[in-house]
């Protein structure tokens, strides 16, 4: 058993000098001072072993993903990361796990200028909860409620690989070793689209990140905006690995897979050139996959315009 206690492990793995925060780890509260005219964007996400990640995941990838899913929320809001807190429960002090976990966590934090400023540790089942803080100019946050009829519907990157990896773990998809490692990386180490979110301020009319599946997350936008959507299922951007799978599996992974952490957003048709510019400047591919219409709900069609039967739904923590 490790000789490290709670405060020893915090000092060893999670205490760093702050650069942007007023006060960080070590006091009763962290202190943040957003810039003049800025609003603070705050989001929390929890990862539970056996629910959100497998016990076999590498600790550095787990540390990366724990922060990535929170940074993705900031990206969907068009907010710049500032700081985060970490609440960590674990069965015992495992210094090999802590070394890898903190390495992956803090490498991503450094890449986005996001400081660890506090949190909590306790003994219990492996459970990670991060609260992230970002800033956005007043009135410029991207929201779910801004989509309007006539807008184009876009998604960043590619979708479906994380779900394909899950199907491989479940034994319902047979993948080669190389293919499995690529899609497993997509599931375990997603890349938050922070730079794209910043570039879409003043361009996108609404945005959300894809955590529970493209269709399910799109419905949040449609309900908040009071509109409907049409998606071309064959326009979804997929990796070569997913494109090689049967059509039904391609559709299910791309439309309902979840864990992609790509940005799903709308923009007026008149902003198409600005969307393309944001994609070029950030180096993040963006694909138009549909349109916003008057009405309610979502229709999914193929490239011929025929409706695609939807026999799958979005992920729900208490139904899935």
Automatic annotation (TrEMBL):
<feature type="binding site">
    <location>
        <position position="44"/>
    </location>
    <ligand>
        <name>Mg(2+) 1</name>
    </ligand>
</feature>
<protein>
    <recommendedName>
        <fullName>Thiamine-monophosphate kinase</fullName>
        <ecNumber>2.7.4.16</ecNumber>
    </recommendedName>
</protein>
<keyword id="KW-0418">Kinase</keyword>
<feature type="binding site">
    <location>
        <position position="45"/>
    </location>
    <ligand>
        <name>Mg(2+) 1</name>
    </ligand>
</feature>
<feature type="binding site">
    <location>
        <position position="315"/>
    </location>
    <ligand>
        <name>substrate</name>
    </ligand>
</feature>
<feature type="binding site">
    <location>
        <position position="209"/>
    </location>
    <ligand>
        <name>Mg(2+) 3</name>
    </ligand>
</feature>
<dbReference type="Pfam" id="PF00586">
    <property type="entry name" value="AIRS"/>
</dbReference>
<feature type="binding site">
    <location>
        <position position="43"/>
    </location>
    <ligand>
        <name>Mg(2+) 4</name>
    </ligand>
</feature>
<feature type="binding site">
    <location>
        <position position="45"/>
    </location>
    <ligand>
        <name>Mg(2+) 2</name>
    </ligand>
</feature>
<dbReference type="InterPro" id="IPR036921">
    <property type="entry name" value="PurM-like_N_sf"/>
</dbReference>
<feature type="binding site">
    <location>
        <position position="52"/>
    </location>
    <ligand>
        <name>substrate</name>
    </ligand>
</feature>
<dbReference type="GO" id="GO:0005524">
    <property type="term" value="F:ATP binding"/>
</dbReference>
<dbReference type="InterPro" id="IPR016188">
    <property type="entry name" value="PurM-like_N"/>
</dbReference>
<keyword id="KW-0067">ATP-binding</keyword>
<keyword id="KW-0460">Magnesium</keyword>
<keyword id="KW-0547">Nucleotide-binding</keyword>
<dbReference type="InterPro" id="IPR006283">
    <property type="entry name" value="ThiL-like"/>
</dbReference>
<feature type="binding site">
    <location>
        <position position="73"/>
    </location>
    <ligand>
        <name>Mg(2+) 2</name>
    </ligand>
</feature>
<feature type="binding site">
    <location>
        <position position="28"/>
    </location>
    <ligand>
        <name>Mg(2+) 4</name>
    </ligand>
</feature>
<feature type="binding site">
    <location>
        <position position="73"/>
    </location>
    <ligand>
        <name>Mg(2+) 4</name>
    </ligand>
</feature>
<feature type="binding site">
    <location>
        <position position="28"/>
    </location>
    <ligand>
        <name>Mg(2+) 3</name>
    </ligand>
</feature>
<feature type="binding site">
    <location>
        <position position="211"/>
    </location>
    <ligand>
        <name>ATP</name>
    </ligand>
</feature>
<comment type="similarity">
    <text>Belongs to the thiamine-monophosphate kinase family.</text>
</comment>
<feature type="binding site">
    <location>
        <position position="212"/>
    </location>
    <ligand>
        <name>Mg(2+) 5</name>
    </ligand>
</feature>
<feature type="binding site">
    <location>
        <position position="144"/>
    </location>
    <ligand>
        <name>ATP</name>
    </ligand>
</feature>
<comment type="pathway">
    <text>Cofactor biosynthesis; thiamine diphosphate biosynthesis; thiamine diphosphate from thiamine phosphate: step 1/1.</text>
</comment>
<dbReference type="GO" id="GO:0000287">
    <property type="term" value="F:magnesium ion binding"/>
</dbReference>
<feature type="binding site">
    <location>
        <position position="120"/>
    </location>
    <ligand>
        <name>Mg(2+) 1</name>
    </ligand>
</feature>
<feature type="binding site">
    <location>
        <position position="259"/>
    </location>
    <ligand>
        <name>substrate</name>
    </ligand>
</feature>
<dbReference type="InterPro" id="IPR010918">
    <property type="entry name" value="PurM-like_C_dom"/>
</dbReference>
<dbReference type="InterPro" id="IPR036676">
    <property type="entry name" value="PurM-like_C_sf"/>
</dbReference>
<dbReference type="GO" id="GO:0009030">
    <property type="term" value="F:thiamine-phosphate kinase activity"/>
</dbReference>
<keyword id="KW-0808">Transferase</keyword>
<dbReference type="Pfam" id="PF02769">
    <property type="entry name" value="AIRS_C"/>
</dbReference>
<feature type="binding site">
    <location>
        <begin position="119"/>
        <end position="120"/>
    </location>
    <ligand>
        <name>ATP</name>
    </ligand>
</feature>
<keyword id="KW-0479">Metal-binding</keyword>
<dbReference type="GO" id="GO:0009229">
    <property type="term" value="P:thiamine diphosphate biosynthetic process"/>
</dbReference>
<feature type="binding site">
    <location>
        <position position="73"/>
    </location>
    <ligand>
        <name>Mg(2+) 3</name>
    </ligand>
</feature>
<keyword id="KW-0784">Thiamine biosynthesis</keyword>
<dbReference type="GO" id="GO:0009228">
    <property type="term" value="P:thiamine biosynthetic process"/>
</dbReference>
<comment type="function">
    <text>Catalyzes the ATP-dependent phosphorylation of thiamine-monophosphate (TMP) to form thiamine-pyrophosphate (TPP), the active form of vitamin B1.</text>
</comment>
């Amino acid at each position: 058993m490790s000789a490290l206690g709670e405060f020893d492990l915090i000092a060893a793995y999670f205490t760093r000098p702050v650069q942007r925060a007023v006060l960080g780890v070590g006091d009763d509260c962290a202190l943040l001072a957003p810039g003049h005219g800025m609003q603070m964007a705050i989001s929390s996400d929890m990862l539970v072993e056996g629910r959100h990640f497998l016990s076999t995941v590498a600790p550095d990838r787990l540390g990366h993903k724990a922060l990535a899913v929170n940074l993705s929320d900031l990206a969907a809001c068009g907010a710049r990361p500032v700081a985060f807190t970490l609440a960590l429960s674990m069965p015992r002090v495992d210094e090999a796990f802590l070394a890898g976990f903190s390495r992956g966590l803090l490498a991503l934090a450094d890449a986005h200028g996001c400081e660890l400023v506090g949190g909590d540790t306790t003994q219990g089942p492996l459970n990670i909860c991060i609260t992230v803080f970002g800033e956005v100019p007043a009135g410029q946050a991207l929201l779910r409620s801004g989509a309007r009829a006539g807008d184009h519907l876009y998604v960043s990157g590619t979708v479906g690989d994380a779900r394909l990896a899950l199907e491989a773990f479940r034994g319902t998809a047979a993948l080669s070793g190389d293919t499995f490692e690529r899609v497993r990386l997509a599931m375990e180490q997603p890349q938050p689209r922070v730079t794209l979110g910043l570039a879409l301020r003043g361009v996108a009319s609404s945005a959300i990140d894809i955590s529970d599946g493209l269709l399910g997350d799109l419905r949040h936008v449609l309900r908040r905006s009071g509109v409907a959507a049409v998606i071309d299922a064959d326009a979804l951007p997929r990796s070569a690995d997913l494109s090689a799978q049967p059509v039904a599996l391609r559709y299910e992974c791309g439309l309902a897979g979840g864990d992609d952490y790509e940005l799903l957003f709308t923009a007026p048709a008149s902003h198409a050139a600005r969307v393309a510019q944001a994609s070029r400047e950030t180096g993040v591919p963006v694909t138009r996959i549909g349109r916003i219409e008057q009405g309610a709900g979502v229709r999914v069609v193929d490239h011929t315009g025929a409706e695609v039967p939807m026999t799958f739904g979005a992920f729900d923590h208490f139904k899935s």
